[in-house]
Amino acid sequence: MYEDDDAVVIGPDRKYPWKVHGMFGASATSYGSVGENYIISTGYGSKMAGGSWINTGEGGVVEEHLRTGANVIAQIGPGLFGYRDEDGNFSIEEFVKKSKEPNIKAFELKFGQGAKIRGGHLEGKKVTQKIAAVRKVKQGKTINSPNRFPFLQNATDTLHFIHNLQKLGGKPVGIKLVIGQQKPLEELLQTMKDLDIYPDFITVDGSEGGSGATYKSMADSMGIPLIPALITLVDTACYFGIRDKFKIFASGKLVTPDKVAIALEPV
């Protein structure tokens, strides 16, 4: 675990920057797809390890995420689960409320996921009363999260939205994506440079992720593997001269020390 002087600072310009004292944490897993026992065990494990973190996934923040004392990245997906009003629109009030939770250290907007390119999916039989309350949806009804944020039409919209969240919550705000073609990535980074607006971190998800809640052809064939994706992001950011503007997280079956070490090298 890093000493305080060596900690990696996420969002140094935010009111509440996050000092990360470790090298790895638990990837995003939504409540509903996983249960309370999983969340509690990973939370306590992360807390015991020190310098680590857990990620809520797009299913929203539940009490089990917070009570373990672990550092939490709260993910916001296109379905806005946990961050929506009764009409399904983004709720500033819900976001600000969660930003006041001391254990929530950062927020992550999920634009892509290696396991589920098409967007999230939860069968109605799994949508319990608690899940419905957390996500602000109807109990027993199948949930399909769209594959994009309907109110963000382009990179400019996206970056202004990120900037607003950074100001509203005072905490770091990052994005999660899967890299496929080079051109959209170049357009995004160019727009960052033009507007001088940057996410505090970018999480790169490789195509290795697995899930039973998507089409096999999509899971197997869309997106590029993690290591080439990392190299692509780093090289493209260096090309535009903005590599120092954000930190990089990586996810995609990094479950052994050698895999973590390999992923750290390009970054």
TrEMBL record:
<comment type="similarity">
    <text>Belongs to the glutamate synthase family.</text>
</comment>
<protein>
    <recommendedName>
        <fullName>Glutamate synthase domain-containing protein</fullName>
    </recommendedName>
</protein>
<dbReference type="Pfam" id="PF01645">
    <property type="entry name" value="Glu_synthase"/>
</dbReference>
<feature type="domain" description="Glutamate synthase">
    <location>
        <begin position="9"/>
        <end position="264"/>
    </location>
</feature>
<dbReference type="GO" id="GO:0006537">
    <property type="term" value="P:glutamate biosynthetic process"/>
</dbReference>
<dbReference type="GO" id="GO:0015930">
    <property type="term" value="F:glutamate synthase activity"/>
</dbReference>
<dbReference type="InterPro" id="IPR013785">
    <property type="entry name" value="Aldolase_TIM"/>
</dbReference>
<dbReference type="InterPro" id="IPR002932">
    <property type="entry name" value="Glu_synthdom"/>
</dbReference>
